[in-house]
Design brief:
The chain starts with 7 loop residues before the first helix and ends in a 13-residue tail after the last strand. The protein has a single domain, classed as OB fold (Dihydrolipoamide Acetyltransferase, E2P) (Beta Barrel). It contains one helix and seven strands. Strand 6 and strand 7 form a beta hairpin. It has 144 residues and is of the alpha+beta class. About 22% of the residues have low confidence.
Amino acid sequence: MNRPGPSPRRLAAHVIAAAGLFACALALTACPEKKPVEPAASGSRHTYVVRGMVAMVPDPSHPIREFMVHHEAIPGFVRKDGTLGMNEMTMAFPLGEGASLAGIEVGDKVEVEFHVEWEPRARFWTSRVTELPEETALELRGAK
């Protein structure tokens, strides 16, 4: 018996999720180098708060546990090698336990709190998403 392939919507959701994960991996490893600092201690967790504009939320009929945000630069972001900085970019943010996107839509301006651990393996997650007032000015090229 032949099984039908995934629906076009499901396939599109998987492609978007894969692209988001690739963008995230690239963001965490390929940002231009800023000034060097001491490498983060093994097992340490870094917490960041960044503002941006929501670029993608999960389709309610095919929920995934991440969303995409075009965020402002994060000058104090500590990369695995200890160097500082993450450029403005659009990247996927995985939702952590208890984090919610209730009421958040594409185009909303948000503040995102996320955490990064480099050891024992690289991982990151979002703990809070807060909608900002529409008139909030963001430092994003090409965004309103």
